[in-house]
Each structure stands twice: as C-alpha cells, then as structure tokens.
Amino acid sequence: MLWDIDHTLINAGGISADIYATVFHRLIGHRPAKVAAMAGRTDLAITTETLSHHGIDPTPALLASFTTALAEAFASRSHDIAARGHVLPGAHAALKTLAARPDVIQSALTGNMEQIARVKLTALALTDYFDLDVGAYGMDGIERPPLVALAQQRASRKYGDDFTPSNTVLIGDTPHDVRAAHEGGARVVAVATGATPAPALRLSGAEQVLEDLTDTQRVVRSILNA
C-alpha cells in the first residue's frame, strides 16, 4: 500500500507555504511573490516552478541548497506540526488495522521529500505503521507516476517479491494521485479528504472513491479489493 500523506492521512497545520516562503527569502534575499501550487505535486516540481516564476534558474546546486534548507526548516518546526496539525479522522485506525496484517506492507508515495515525510509522520506519531525505506518521495522526480515503479522496485529489492499493478494500491486525495496510479502501475483508492470533492475524483478516473477514512472496515475492504 502506498499512501499519500498530506490531506489523505494528516493535516500538517498549514505551515508548508510559510516554510517555503521563509526558505526562499533566506536564500534569494526577498519574499516570493508566489509559491507554486502544492496539492498533489512533488517538492522538486514546487521548488523548480517557484524559482522559475521569479526568473531564477533552478540549477542543480540551487535546488540542492533549497531543498536541504527546506528539510532543515521542517525539522526545526516539528513541534509546530505536532501542535497545529492533526491526523485525519479514521486514518490512525485504518493504518493500524492494515499494519496488523502479515500480507500488507505500507509505505508512502508522496510529494514530500523523504526527510519532510518522516518529520510529519513522526510529529503525528504515525511512523511505526510504515516501512518508509520502500516509499517514493518528492525529490525522486518532478512527476508522480514514475514514483510508483520506483517504490515497487525498492520493495522488491527489500522483500524479494514482485510488486505489480495487481498487488500495489495507491491511496490519495487528488487527481494527481489517480493519474500516478493509472500511469505508474497501481490500483487506486481516492479519498475526498482534501480540496477535491468525490465527484471530481471520479471524473479523474478513480474507480473507488471514499468520502473519508472513518469507516475502517470499508476502507480496509476497499483497499484490499482494489
């Protein structure tokens, strides 16, 4: 199982845009006029677009400096995530129930870079339900679909099994997640816990759509049957 994080499992308290703006100011010397849209996108894409919007060449060296500063900033504000953020209703029970099954491996497929994903999940006490070593993250690529195969390859190397569309399920809250699953090689369960309502998720091609994660048995059944 590959879980998206933000607005699928957690709300991090709305600090992401502020951290991006703070890091931009520190490295570039002024506040950004605009931070790129974040929902469903990778940190690599967000950082690249934000810099480009301001006429700044997103060189590999600058991207490395920017994303390192982002990771450090999120780590320094983990207490804010714990205080201001929260686990979405039903998420804890769903993760716990799935983690108890010997036939399930749970990891993350998220736009967050790995360091930030770990900070968020640790701050909200969810890390123990995941094998984050076999996930795929926001610095692994600009687009999300190739991240599915990357996570499958990492899991295959660690566990020795083949991970294919028949046994890989992606759970997320945006059309980007749906596209990542369909193009990347996974089944998808979409949840309308973010900004995209259920009808729009269905229009994006999601075969299974849940309003939220509060009905644990339905969530588990939907994921296992996907």
Walk me through the structure.
This protein is α/β, with parallel strands linked by helices. It has helices at 16-28, 43-53, 60-76, 78-84, 91-99, 114-123, 145-159, 175-184, 198-203, 216-225, and strands at 2-3, 10-11, 86-87, 107-108, 169-172, 187-191, 208-210. Helix 1 crosses helix 3 (60-76) and helix 4 packs across helix 6. The mean pLDDT is 94.
The main sheet comes to: 5 strands, parallel
CATH superfamily of the largest domain, called what?
HAD superfamily/HAD-like
Number of domains: 2
CATH class of the largest domain: Alpha Beta
Order of helices and strands: EEHHHHEHEHHEHEHEH
Biggest sheet: strand arrangement = 4-1-5-6-7
Radius of gyration: 17 Å
The name of the CATH topology of the largest domain is Rossmann fold
Morphology:
globular
Q: At CATH's second level, what is the architecture of the largest domain?
A: 3-Layer(aba) Sandwich
Structural class: alpha/beta
**N-to-C terminal Cα separation, in Å?**
11 Å
What's this model, at a glance?
The protein has 226 residues and is α/β, with parallel strands linked by helices. The protein has two domains: 2-12 and 86-225, HAD superfamily/HAD-like (Rossmann fold); 16-81.
